[in-house]
Amino acid sequence: MTRSEALELIDEDALHARAAARAGSSDFGDDDYREGLGVLLGAARNSPRLEAIAGRTASLVIDALASRLSSQAGWNAHPEVLQNPITAPLVITGLPRSGTTLLHFLMSLDPQFQWTPRWIGEAPLVRPPREEWEAHPQYQAVHDRVEAFFAINPGLRAAHEMGAGLADECITIMVQSFVNNMFISMLPLPEYRDWFFQADETPSYRRYKDNLRLIGAGTPDKTWLVKNPSHTIGMEPLLTTFPDARVVVLHRNPVETIASGASLTYRNADFWEKTEVGAIRLDVYSRAVKRMAEARERHPGHCLDIAYKDLVSDPLGTVQRIYDHYGLHMTEETAEAMKDWLAANPQGKHGKHSYSSNEFGITDDDVRNAFADYIAAHNL
Q1: Which domain holds residue 298?
Q2: Is residue 22 part of a domain?
Q3: pLDDT band at 162 (very low <50, low <70, confident <90, very high)
Q4: For 330-360, how does the pLDDT look when each residue is reduced to its tens digit (9 = 90+)?
Q5: Which of 1, 14, 13, 4 is nearest to 45 (CA)?
Q6: Can you say whether the dihedral through the CA atoms of 246, 131, 210, 203 is positive or negative?
Q7: Nearest 5 degrees, angle CA 156-CA 43-CA 235?
Q8: Strand order in the sheet with 90-94
Q9: Cβ contact 250:378 at 8 Å
Q10: What does the DSSP assignment read for 96-137?
Q11: Residue 224's closest CA among 253, 257, 247, 255?
């Protein structure tokens, strides 16, 4: 690919047109997303790896714009949903690779919660009854795309499981605002990363809340269960947007989480330099734990801390501890469903995910030094 071809591929107007063609609509809503989009595309244009990253950049932008169009179409068709309350959501967070996915999958088995499956997270709409999912064209499209992705990245499923019908992360929807850590994890764009950490994520969280109102329009009174490691970065806007949120924060030694996350980033694309991804993860998440600690000081009483080692050694006991803390009731049927899921999904089911700090350009001591306060605060 030539530079001129790469520039044409990430032309902003062309990206909007391609997203509109995919979604079958052209109402992108308000323009507050354009600043972040502009910074992202500008950083890509300035990148010495433009030709290598242009295709991935275009794909991510089109996905986010098409998702934005889907949400706007839903709100236009059902404006009344924007009045629905989102009451006391249960929010799972923690550094990436701290067991958040395991806990999310387990708790999503409890019918007292509603959550966003991957196929709806990619293009929000009013969530239909579970028995109708597989027949939906959007479900089939997402299922096929996810399976194809794993087919060409055979080691990735061992690192992070996804599925069209599985509970998905908030980040999939929050990319709509283009103020989002996903672009940092997926693209080597230091200009965007610097801008992101100076930006205000509050509008992104407000839009996310409206997306939950749309998706849950059929069950507006049901408790939301959501999960996103990037809430460690956005804890302040999370707690101002959802002032009655009940947050579960998982903690694992960063020596393990940073290297594991670097491995996941590196496996996602062939344009990364292996020795750069460790430093990026170290920078992003050492900032994240400091931001989270500061936000928790300003908003006390919202968070329950859970050790990763406790979740892994006693998952059902850990879930019960969360239920007890937040006054939730677990039925015998839910407990049995969780036991069955654990038996069917042992750790390492899809292979072993191996990694070390040194292979990603950092040392264990670098991590310990960057996270010294966090490690001490949570006895890691």
Answers
A1: 87-112+222-380
A2: no
A3: low
A4: 999 999 999 999 999 886 554 444 568 889 9
A5: 4
A6: positive
A7: 65
A8: 113-114, 223-227, 90-94, 246-251, 303-307
A9: no
A10: TTSSHHHHHHHHTTSTTEE--BHHHHTS--PPPPGGGTTTSH
A11: 247
Query: In the chain, how many domains are there?
Result: 1
Q: 140 lies in a domain?
A: no
Q: What is the pTM of this model?
A: 0.93
CATH number of the structural domain spanning residue 108: 3.40.50.300
Residue type for 293, please? A
**Cβ atoms of residues 47 and 189 within 8 Å:** yes
Residue recorded with tokens 């600690």: 293
Cα dihedral sign, 71-72-76-80: positive
Spatial contact of 216 and 84, defined as CB atoms under 8 Å apart? yes
Give the separation between CA 148 and CA 166, rounded to whole angstroms.
16
- Rounded mean pLDDT of 196-216? 98
As a whole number, mean pLDDT of residues 255-273 equals: 88
Please check whether residue 289 lies inside any domain of the structure. Answer: yes
| 57 assigned to some structural domain | no
